[in-house]
Amino acid sequence: MLSCKEASVLLSLSQEQPVGWRARAGLRLHLMLCRGCRNFRLQLDMIRAAIRRFRDDDTPR
Amino acid sequence: MTSPGEQDIQQHRAYLMRYALLQLRNQEVAEDVVQETLLAALQGLAGFSGNSSQRTWLTGILKHKIIDVMRRKAREQPLTINDDESEADAIDAIFSANGHWQQPPANWGDPAKSLEDSKFREMFEICCRVMPERTARAFMMREVMEMSTKEICKELKITQANLWVILHRARLSLRACLEIKWFGTRTN
Q1: Which among B19, B101, B167 is the nearest to A36, CB-wise?
Q2: Which of A23, A47, A60, B65 is 20 to 30 A from B14 (CA-CA)?
């Protein structure tokens, strides 16, 4: 079973490139059981979306 | 395609400024590169391939200018060698000895709503600004300039493994900062 530390590395890495099937399977199992890491995954997506949004958003502030 | 008029180009200035600021985190330097970019565009110094939009074209010029600035900075102020170890230590500190989160990430609620919130944006910018220089440089190359990890490694002269650690660290510290500054103080 992956630790949160290991799972977080894989989640971060997934932002760069697809991870192998073994890692993916381990991650899926971990995420089923771990709310913190599920939240972390959503936060990573949100951080990426936020940066692109702030970069591209043309509405005056 | 005719070359863009001055008015068209000025309309892109705000966009280029945001782009440069996210990457360079310095108002003056950002203004300089945007100015240089617009000048190059107006003088038609950079070739324009007709199938990309003006913004894409300008962004392409801007990227080169930003990378030039970063190269210059790297020469003047080389990154210290013990940084990698401190990155790893900082990651270790976020987890307990058995690999659990010291502070498990919380549920941030509806992302769409937060992205609309100007307060979130303000906190996001603050949290980006407190990132260490080297971390921010690599992270923004990845997220703002959307460079591949391969390109970034080449540019920063680091290994893939180094870069993964830096990016991971950047995300961990950014999310921790946001959770404290934004989600922690939010009243639901």
Answers
A1: B101
A2: A47
Tell me the nearest-neighbour CA distance from B162 into chain A, angstroms: 12
Question: What is the distance between the alpha carbons of residues B56 and A30, in angstroms, rounded to a whole number?
Answer: 40
pLDDT profile of chain B (188 residues), mean per 10: 60 90 92 93 64 81 94 77 71 93 93 88 90 90 95 93 94 94 69
Instruction: Select from 3.30.470.20, 3.40.630.30, 3.30.750.24, 1.10.10.10 the CATH code of B83-183.
Output: 1.10.10.10
Q: How far does CA B171 lie from the centroid of its chain?
A: 12
CATH 1.10.1740 fits B6-76, yes or no: yes
Residue of A nearest to B171 (CA): A44
Among A8, A34, A38, A58, the strongest candidate for a mutation testing the B interface, having the largest count of B CBs within 10 A, is A8
* pTM of the entire predicted model: 0.86
What's the residue count for chain B? 188
